[in-house]
Amino acid sequence: MTILFAFGMPGVMSSWGVAAVHALAREAFGEYTIITTDTIEDLKQHVQSRSGTHAVLVSQFPEARLSELIVRINVPFLLCLEDPIDAVSYLARATDQRDFGLVRAVSASLACLEPLASASAGLVLRRNDIGQRSSIDLLLKKIDEHFSTELTFEQISSALRHVGMGSPEAASGTGVPKLEEAAAAVIVGYLTPKEEVPELSESLRELAGKVLRPLQFGHSEAAIPSIFWPRETFLAGDRLGEGLDSSLDLTGGARCLIYGPYLHLPPGRWDAKFFFEVEEDCHGQIFTLEIHAKELLGKLRVCPQGTGPFETAVPVEVLDPRTPIEIRLMMDSGAIEGRLSAWSIEWLRAA
Asked: Can you give 267-321 as a three-state secondary structure string?
């Protein structure tokens, strides 16, 4: 029994990459099982069934235990990545969603896939690195070699017809398409790199860039820098479901002032640096900062003095990248004056 593992974020690269793995599996195995899952339990069930059936496992949001297993046993896998803004655009075109939930989904995929990026057994295909540089026959041969499926020339030629090759004759000539040409031919909802789709507003595109670009990975020499969650990603405690204003009036009773943004982080230890500006003195008001996932990750009570910028940090450990992070800023008692602004959070990898 052989299992081919294909991981990737939503988008054109993953769609083509998964199609390529299926094409190889058809030629190498004939019949095989498709395991579309993010959990280790489904993988265990297939292995323990003792059916001996070959399989292709596909995942966009692998749980930490599944990623840890893949890295530990050093099994070959494919990891497909692309520009996160292109991934958001792809989801907007493919679904009816048009709001910040698109950004949350891509952040979840990136956070879940990050542990796989530096694994020695991974073949990382980045759409922006390939584009029009490589023909699909070379890409398919590279994937074949990585998985050791050892297809013949005839089998490679047959597989190419499922991933964008116009005809079997083209495989031996000069008309072998590049990745983008092939993807455009076989992927429903294909978008060119950096294509601005009407389904995605300019403001959401800009916000997605601020949040998601720091999560990009895939080059061994590049580590994830600090991750920034700006004010626009958070929600107002006084108006559930509505965005946070640039300035926050503290007048009123004890309450939750800010919550959200339900974005995701890769597993590991992080320092959450909180920033805000005290515009009007809140005279000894105590605030409680909480960081939640499935459970409380961190908590701190602070008492800003006077006016001006305020900064503090809370250390946390993220165990499950599939669980969104919720921040809460709560006012411990009522106030007759006071105003906050310039709220944001920066995440730094803990030393």
From this structure: CEEEEEEEEEEEEECCCCCCEEEEEECCCEEEEEEECCCCCEEEEEEEEEEECCC
